[in-house]
Specification:
extended; 2 strands; 1% strand; mainly alpha; 15 helices
Length: 337
Amino acid sequence: MQNTELLLKELTLEEKCALLSGAETFKTRGMPEHGIPQIWLSDGPHGLRKQAGESDHLGLNPSVPATCFPTASAVANSWDAALGEKIGAALGEEAAAQGLLAGLNAARNALGESQLILPRQSSYLGTLVDDLVTKGVMDPYRMMTSRSEYRLTLRQDNADTRLTPIGREYGLVQDDRWTKYQQTQAVLDAERRRLHDAHLRTADLRAAMEAAGLAPAAEGGIAEELLRRPEIDYPLIAGMIGWGEGITPMLAERLETEIKYAGYIARQDRMIHEVARHEKTLIPEDFSYTELTGLTLEAREKLARIRPKNLGQAGRIPGVSPSDVAQLSIALAAKRS
């Protein structure tokens, strides 16, 4: 295949988009006039799980061992037949999520725009891609909540807050959905302020708790503080001060979760902040690990093979210890100075 940069200059935008769509369910679109071959893939034109040996539409043959990339868009971004052999070993149903990220980044690549790399702490999709990058995909990967160390933050009820702004920035969220998101956030913010300011009298609280079959509280107080108690829920508080405007049962449960677990969530936020600091420490692509004798041999070998993009990613590679990360941080600081 000819030089990639020259090839990209030759292709029209329509031709680039045609490459991303695939010729059919299991084949990429070849362009012989440009020297681009057709590739048969067992999970479709995103480039996931290229079959080894003779190909078939059932995907029964073993997959070629793979290397995955943070943008999740390898074949779609390169149109390189050899690269098809390095993407995805067995992603199962998680391929649909990765395909969303791959499609976004492939389209942005065709337009010459920056790529989206979801941080591990931002979503389960970010966790999935980070695991594939740092740990490899020698076996079928299953996305389970236990794979994330940020489960208190990566809740289903706050997915809109975590991901809608990102979707908006990258052109995936249209105006109507964005307006609805902003309205929901305004409702939640207003109710947080109301719960923080509302004071419940002891007599009212005791009467409400007795009516609910609960042991009466010693005294009343701020609604937000009372919600921290395990036996008190939002409907009980709302029975005394009324439901907040626009608050649905789902939003009420979300607010209650935020308030009851505020201390744990704050601690996890501090952890995320620390990880983000490491993520900002970039590792040059040509960085040599062979001279870092302070690292274990296993750490040097894995770092050289995986070539993490930043210090945070390096620390998540199995076999790379915290002391290895500390040594690497010192070496990077020395190189910058």
